TrEMBL record:
This is Caspase recruitment domain-containing protein 19. InterPro entries: CARD, CARD19, CARD_BinCARD, DEATH-like_dom_sf. It is found in: Endoplasmic reticulum membrane; Mitochondrion membrane. Associates with BCL10 by CARD-CARD interaction. It holds the Pfam family CARD. It comes from Chloropsis cyanopogon. The lineage of its organism: Eukaryota, Metazoa, Chordata, Craniata, Vertebrata. One of its GO terms (biological process) is regulation of apoptotic process.
Amino acid sequence: QSYCHRLQHDMYFLTSTSRLNEQVVDKIVLQLNRVYPQILTNEEAEKFRNPKASLHTRLSDLLKHLQKKGDRHCQEFYRALQINAEQLFNDLPSRKILKTPDPTEIDTDKEQYMLNDRGPVFFLACFSMAAGLALFWYCCNSEMQVIGRARRILGFSPIIIGRHVRNICMLYLEDMSRD
């Protein structure tokens, strides 16, 4: 993807309010004016640094001007943006597209959010339900040997299961063994 296409893609993001402030835009314009080869002439730099015009208008005009000039000029703009506003440069939509070139690849940030949006209580509830079903299935088997094993496991688990729950389970196992 050419730098001109990337700049066209990022234009709305860059010109939206409070993304770039006056100082950063001025630094970018000055860098484009002073870099070799000179991207902006002195007259163009003065035009894009004119404090009488609004920042949005100046920035929009600058981006359109760079797109007309060609790919090299747009590349130098991205370099100046990276030097003067690195965090904003990393947040550009075109940069995010470049980071995940395969459209079938899973975006790990979104996937991580999708997996973690329920919280620890949901995990504990699911785990408790699975453990309870496993214990119920293990204890309700009709073989006597299984009940004896379950009684031994429950007898040595005051830490895992509370005393009242353990006593109820032990009584239930004793009733099952009598039948």
